[in-house]
Amino acid sequence: MKVCIQPLRELGRDTPVVLEFLRKSLEKLFGDCEVLEVAELPAHAYNPARDQYNSTAILESLKPELECDVVLGVVEADLYAGNLNFVFGEAELLGRRAVISLARLRSEFYGLPLIAIY
User: Fold this and answer.
1) How far apart are CA 83 and CA 89, in angstroms?
2) What is the DSSP letter of 87?
3) For 1-118, where are the E strands, in sequence order?
4) Which of these, 68, 114, 18, lies nearest to 8 by C-alpha position?
């Protein structure tokens, strides 16, 4: 199975480290993993009233490449879904697409001192 990691927008100061960690980890589990070129977040997924992105809209915009069995979108943006205040990610049930957010995994999101995640 080939997993493709799709970075969406720039992920921040440690982008290469985060993407490489994900690639190596997923490669151990699934055998083949590739990091794709950075793509833009879909503008229609942004909700200005919430200052968040709708994870379902992002998920639906992810298009698995022909050579990819599964695509994992990785974003730095804060996500929400439905009536939930926030989500860390979302995946299709029995599907080929998933999206995760790093935003709320970072200490600075909560106004705390910077902590390296690697």
Assistant:
1) 14
2) B
3) 2-7, 32-35, 46-47, 52-54, 70-75, 79-80, 89-91, 97-101
4) 18
Answer yes or no: are the C-beta atoms of 80 and 74 closer than 8 Å. no
The domain limits of the chain are 2-110
Question: CA-CA distance, 52 to 113, in Å (whole number)?
Answer: 22
Nearest partner of 37 among 13, 60, 69, 71, judged by Cα: 71
Q: Which CATH class is domain 2-110?
A: alpha beta
Residue 83: the pLDDT is 94
* Contact yes or no for 33/23 (Cβ under 8 A): yes
d(Cα 110, Cα 68) in Å, to the nearest integer? 35
What is the pTM (predicted TM-score) of this model?
0.89
Phi, psi of 27, deg, nearest 5 = -65, -40
Summarised one tens digit per residue, pLDDT across range 80-110 is 999 999 999 999 999 999 999 999 887 787 7
Q: Identify the bridge partners of residue 105 per DSSP, sorted by sequence position.
A: none
